[in-house]
Amino acid sequence: MECSTDPELVLNAGIHDQRLALKFIQRHIRSFGGNPNKVTLMGQSAGAGAVGLHLTAARKDQWEAVANLVGCSTNPSTIAHTLECLRTVNPVQLMQAADDGKKQHSGSLWAWLPVIDNTLFKSNPASILKAIPGVDVIVGHTTADSASGGTPFEAVVNATYPGLTASDIDTLKAMYVKAGITEGNMATFGLGEAVFRCGTHFLANLYGSRAHTYRWDEPDPANPASAGHSSDNYILYEGSRTLSNGTGEFHALTPAQRGLSDETIAYFTSFYANGVPKAANTSSVNHPVWPAHPTGKRIVFRAEGGGTGGIQGTPGASFVEELNLEEVERCKIWNSMVNRAGM
């Protein structure tokens, strides 16, 4: 998406802030014993999206909705005045307006996205990724990662990917009917697949032998029925996570979950150090060799005696599985539509 060229309106401010932090790291990391040529970025969910953007603007109606909610004019001739007004608004009030503005665009998964600003991003990030040199990456998703719920499939796809045609949506719907996905679950499953599972395949295919993929199959302590979105955060952050309202939540880990936390952190820190995820000296019993993506295999993270048992395998410790070939084929269809999705 492209947006205003007004010089007063700096687009993608959050990404610019992150780049400033990265410049600080480049400038000072040697003082802490680090190597500026070996910096690893880690992000989960939206944070992972930000990491992807660093490898490679708000929509006008949404901008107007938020500005009007906090009493700032959106007259196109006074954009500088509008921006100055927004800068004086109480941050809590502005965040609430952003949430309220998102509700006015029901169905869309993405209310506030980076935009093509001709500075950081000069074209569709998917196209940029295909043109740049590869880097070492770890990318994955949870077993029950999902991105929507309760909204009819056609409506949520239209709102999230406005560039797709009616024919595209018919193709996608027929694909999920063939896969046995019910109408009531199609939006949740289909958009979860498009965003998380197909995104994993897309990036891993770009980076080939430099990519390692995973499926997280350990439920978080607060939601033991399934390994849903962000369930890995609980395990990796000692049983705690920050909720959307800014408060924290804590659930003590079992000994087995603590072993999984140790194991996963060992794989990740090994990757940070040398680009290869290995595990050693952890309290978990089983440390499978994590194969690179071209093998057609990925690691599944589970606590000893845990996991959901979903997709492939049986409940137990971490193991390596074959990629789900039906999922891979569905993702080829999703990924063929990337350039016209129009997010």
Question: Biggest sheet: strands, sense, closure?
Answer: 4 strands, mixed
**What name goes with the CATH superfamily of one domain?**
Alpha/Beta hydrolase fold, catalytic domain
CATH A-level architecture of one domain: 3-Layer(aba) Sandwich
Structural class: alpha/beta
In DSSP terms (H or I, runs of 4 or more residues), the helix count works out at 12
Assigned CATH class of one domain:
Alpha Beta
How large is the radius of gyration? Answer: 21 Å
Quote the distance from N terminus to C terminus: 7 Å
Helix fraction, binned, reads: 40-55%
Spatial strand arrangement across the major sheet: 1-2-5-6
What's the shape?
Answer: globular
Report the β-strand fraction as a percent range: 5-15%
N-to-C order of helices and strands: HHHHHHEHHHEHEEHEEH
**Mean pLDDT metric:** 80
DSSP, total strands: 6
Determine the CATH topology of one domain.
Rossmann fold
Outline the low-pLDDT stretches: none
Explain this structure.
The chain is built from 12 helices and 6 strands. A hairpin with a 5-residue loop joins β3 (240-242) and β4 (248-250). The chain has a domain at 133-343: Rossmann fold. With 343 residues, the protein is of the alpha/beta class. The model has no long low-confidence stretch (mean pLDDT 80). The strands form 2 sheets. A 4-stranded mixed beta sheet has the order 1-2-5-6, with helices on both faces. The protein has a two-stranded antiparallel sheet with strand order 3-4. It is 43% helix and 8% strand. α9 (183-207) crosses α12.
